[in-house]
Amino acid sequence: DGAASGSEVFFPVDVSFTSCRTVAKVQVVEVVRTETGTPVRFSQESRLVTESYTVPA
User: Fold this and answer.
1) Can you tell me whether residue 32 is helix, strand or coil?
2) 16 neighbors 48 (Cβ within 8 angstroms)
3) Number of domains the chain contains
4) What is d(CA 46, CA 38) in angstroms, rounded to the nearest whole number?
5) Is the CB of residue 46 less than 8 Å from the CB of residue 24?
6) The pLDDT of residue 49
7) SS3 category, 8
8) What is the number of alpha carbons within 13 Å of residue 53 lying toward its C-beta?
9) Which domain holds residue 5?
């Protein structure tokens, strides 16, 4: 009948996930003006996002 059986029913599986932390944990410590070296107030946001992730059979 052409229907898949066994593990073929479940695979491949496409998975997506995100994380609030990067793998390397890189952070910007300070931002300064190039002309004066004066510190500039700043904020930062780090995200780890997969474009695609597939679990093969």
Assistant:
1) strand
2) no
3) 1
4) 24
5) no
6) 78
7) helix
8) 6
9) 1-57
Q: Which amino acid is at 52?
A: S
Tell me the residue ranges of DSSP E strands in the chain.
13-14, 18-19, 48-49, 54-55
pLDDT, position 3: 61
Per the CB < 8 A criterion, the answer to whether 19 and 47 are in contact is: yes
Q: Tell me the Ramachandran region of residue 28: left when phi exceeds 0, alpha when psi lies from -120 to 50, beta otherwise.
A: beta
Joined together, the tokens standing for residue 34 give 């190039």
Q: Which amino acid is at 37?
A: G
Which single residue is written with the structure tokens 């599986």?
13
pLDDT 10s digit of each residue in the chain, 57 long?
A: 556 667 677 778 887 777 777 788 888 999 999 999 999 999 998 877 777 777 777
